[in-house]
TrEMBL record:
PANTHER family per record: PROTEIN PBDC1 (PTHR13410)
Record bears the keyword Signal: yes
Listed Pfam families: PBDC1
Organism: Oncorhynchus mykiss (Rainbow trout)
Polysaccharide biosynthesis domain segment(s): 36-159
InterPro entries in the record: PBDC1-like_dom_sf, PBDC1_metazoa/fungi, Polysacc_synth_dom
Domain of life according to the entry: Eukaryota
Signal peptide from the UniProt entry: 1-15
Name of this chain's protein: Polysaccharide biosynthesis domain-containing protein
Lineage start: Eukaryota, Metazoa, Chordata, Craniata, Vertebrata
GO cellular component: cytoplasm
Keywords associated with the record: Signal
């Protein structure tokens, strides 16, 4: 459904090229442009779709998401050892208190992880697909931290196993 809406907003190669150019400009170049929000939503959705297809095709324990996975994982576990990564509580990412705790973690990856603060879709329940009810908007470094931990700790394995089972 989201992809149908996005297809109507940005059609064809020219639309995709224009979207890529627009998304590469600095944030100061924009006001509150609804079309820009749709372009960001499309980019986030495409990223989510690719990632879920990857989880479904490759054993998640073998995935390397960045060149600094070990550093991200170590820092994440030091900062958020009590976070339930299997079933995320949106409040653990979105409340003012949570944002204060996440800010130093995220900012340490500025200049280390490309686009560390870009918006990305993150599944709340890691054994389920991206749906409206199971998805939250997070920064890319939050996505990497949580998904690297899910992969290393075996929480994403059921997605891979379910897709390789014959129907």
């Amino acid at each position: 459904m989201i992809m149908i809406l996005l297809y109507h907003v940005i059609q064809g190669v020219e639309g995709a090229t224009a979207a890529a150019q627009a998304l590469s400009l600095p944030a100061e170049a924009y006001g509150n442009d609804p079309q820009l929000e749709v372009m960001w939503a499309m980019k986030a959705y495409n990223h989510a779709e690719i990632y879920f297809n990857l989880l479904s095709s490759v054993d998640p324990s073998n995935l390397k998401l960045t060149t600094v996975d070990d550093r991200i994982y170590t820092s994440f576990k030091e900062s958020f050892s009590d976070l339930n990564i299997k079933n995320l509580d949106p409040d653990m990412l979105k409340t003012a208190e949570a944002k204060e705790k996440w800010r130093p973690f995220c900012n340490q990856f500025d200049g280390v992880v490309e686009d560390f603060n870009y918006g990305t879709l993150l599944r709340l329940d890691c054994v389920k697909d991206y749906t409206e009810e199971n998805t939250i908007f997070a920064t890319r470094i939050q996505f990497f931290a949580i998904e690297i931990a899910r992969n290393r700790e075996g929480f994403n394995t059921p997605v891979f196993q379910a897709k390789k089972q014959p129907s």
